[in-house]
Specification:
This protein has 223 residues and is an alpha/beta fold. The protein has one domain: NAD(P)-binding Rossmann-like Domain (Rossmann fold). It is 40% helix and 17% strand. It is built from five helices and seven strands. A seven-stranded parallel sheet has the order 3-2-1-4-5-6-7, with helices on both faces. The longest helix has 29 residues. The chain starts with a strand and ends in an 8-residue tail after the last strand. The C terminus is likely disordered.
């Protein structure tokens, strides 16, 4: 039985991955990082995916206990976690360095940095115990770096941390029994095809795909 766990920032990109998951599995589990920055806006939930397919799970990213409980809940509800897709598409927070709010720094550290490390720790442990599984780490092209990064101090820091985590996991994947892949892409208007691209690689996952980084529309690897 295919068990898909999707975890990611509340974003339009996350919705497109939900829609693809609903096409491939009777049920999929979803854990969302809400936008808790002081000027953040909450997005509407996905309307494309079949609601009957969705298993919504609670997650407090800044808590290691919550990460453990999330994985346990996903196992119980899905019966099996065969694939985990982590989508880092953090909200942009544009401000001068002198205007950064302390509460937003706490949100950045807890939700957008610690949260991914805690969750990856639990997933790696689960896949090692099973001796199989697939971990996909995904971020949009804009998160890879652009000319606006200096102004988006918090969002760019979150994206840089996730990119570094991805690079480290890919480098360490050779000796692991599960498969790890990284993906970037999804310029505006390409989100549907990007999500399909990622799932295509998950559908066809082989040991040869382990440790590979895929840039949508181009050939590319982390070195």
């Amino acid at each position: 039985m295919r068990g898909i766990l999707i975890a990611g920032n509340e974003s339009a990109l996350l919705n497109f991955f939900e829609a693809e998951a609903a096409k491939r599995a009777e049920h999929y589990a979803l854990a969302i990082i809400k936008n808790r920055f002081s000027d953040g806006n909450q997005l509407n939930g996905n309307t494309e995916a079949n609601n009957e397919s969705l298993i919504q799970l609670e997650w407090n990213p800044g808590s290691p206990i919550s990460a453990s409980n999330l994985i346990l809940a996903a196992k119980n509800r899905l019966e099996n976690i065969s694939e985990a897709i982590l989508i880092c598409d953090p909200p942009s927070v544009y401000c001068a360095a002198a205007d950064i709010k302390i509460v937003d720094v706490e949100v950045l550290a807890n939700d957008h940095i610690k949260g991914w490390f805690y969750l990856v720790r639990e997933l790696v442990s689960t896949f090692r115990e099973k001796g199989e599984g697939a971990l996909a780490l995904v971020f949009p092209e804009s998160a890879a770096g652009n000319k606006d990064d200096a102004a988006d101090l918090l969002g760019s820091a979150a994206a840089a941390s996730f990119k570094a985590l991805t690079k480290g996991l890919l480098a360490a994947s050779v000796s692991e029994p599960y498969i790890t892949m990284g993906f970037s892409g999804a310029c505006t208007g390409e989100e549907t095809s990007f999500a399909s691209f990622v799932f295509k690689h998950l559908d066809e996952k082989t040991r040869r795909s382990n440790g590979k980084f895929h840039k949508y529309g181009k050939m590319g690897f982390f070195r």
